[in-house]
Specification:
It contains eight helices and eleven strands. The strands form three sheets. Strands 1-10-9-11-4-2-3 form a seven-stranded mixed sheet, sandwiched between helices.
């Protein structure tokens, strides 16, 4: 009988331990496991109780995560070598260390309950190739019609960022009309006012469209993105000068390098080279501020809207910062 009893004990132990490990995998608390003997036949309760008491859990149980649990997002990480993939045209007097700025971590959180992004348009009335559309222009490639000027590009960008959990303030003031030459002075006042009212804003985006003569008229930058016309993007950095300094130029450039790298990963032709200039462009007012040329006057309005979607995707990829 002794061999039979030993075999039975061994079998019970195997079944019990298998059950315990399975319950452990499912996250059943240890105290609940200790109640198991109460539901077993009396003949094996004592053996089971001894096995449970002697069983040593390899590490403490933790409560199962809630149903709505989601892990922390993996932050993108950039290396100094990544800067070599980004083209930069530098007409400023600064000599940036592109590798160091690319690798520097971006410490912000754009996805928050308060607005963290400010979109403005220094040249609000800028517009694109009209095509067959008939709307009034205040000058060539400029209009007060919000559906076709830079406000429409800002609206599209704001909509897409909001969908990513990034709250946006979109300044709809016309800074370049009726007086074009004082646009930056007027825009500066707006930025200062809005930043004072919204201190949580981390990113200021000044959306323009470029204007440059080409052989057949205005420059057209359109490329193909998955069979869709898309205008090219150009990030412009105001590095400042002795008369108009910009103490934030390194932060701005660090962000621009990362954003350009991500945009180029979507399509190598999506971006024109980053342009570093000696002007300031009001980028001294915020730690992270970019002037973005969304296409050029010779592009179609639809292609500019597509470029705004690509820009939104790049910003969204950085919304939690970088490692």
């Amino acid at each position: 009988m002794e061999p039979v009893r030993s075999a039975r004990k061994f079998g019970i132990s195997v079944v019990l331990l298998t059950t315990l490990f399975r319950l452990f995998e499912l996250g059943i608390p240890q105290n609940a496991v200790r109640l198991i003997p109460n539901f077993l036949p009396t003949s094996i309760q004592k053996e089971t109780e001894r096995a449970v008491r002697s069983f040593s859990f390899p590490f403490p149980f933790e409560s199962s995560p809630p149903m709505d649990y989601s892990p922390e997002p993996a932050l993108p990480k950039f290396t100094a070598q990544d800067a070599q993939a980004v083209s930069v045209i530098n007409s400023s007097r600064e000599t940036p260390d592109y590798g160091t700025l690319m690798a520097a971590p971006l410490n912000w959180q754009l996805a928050a309950s308060s607005p963290t992004v400010l979109i403005i348009h220094t040249h609000t009335s800028e517009s694109y190739e009209r095509g067959s559309r008939d709307y009034p222009e205040t000058a060539a490639y400029r209009t007060l019609e919000e559906e076709y000027n830079m406000l429409s590009i800002g609206d599209r960008l704001a909509q897409l960022l909001e969908a990513e959990g990034i709250r946006v303030i979109h300044d709809r003031e016309f800074h370049d009309y009726p007086a074009y030459n004082t646009a930056y002075a007027h825009a500066r006042k707006s930025i200062q006012k809005l930043l004072a009212e919204n201190p949580e804003v981390d990113l200021v985006l000044d959306l323009h469209r470029d204007a440059a003569d080409a052989d057949a008229g205005q420059l057209c930058t359109q490329i193909q993105m998955d069979g869709t016309d898309c205008a090219q993007l150009m990030l412009v950095l105001g590095m400042g000068n002795s008369a108009l300094p910009n103490d934030h130029w390194q932060d701005n450039l660090s962000l621009a390098l990362k954003l350009q790298f991500l945009l180029q990963s979507r399509s190598p032709a999506l971006c024109r080279p980053i342009s570093l200039r000696a002007q300031r462009f009001n980028q001294d007012l915020a730690a992270y501020s970019l002037l973005v040329e969304v296409g050029a006057a010779g592009d179609s309005h639809e292609a500019a809207l597509e470029a705004a979607e690509q820009l939104a995707a790049g910003i969204a990829a950085l919304k939690h910062g970088t490692a």
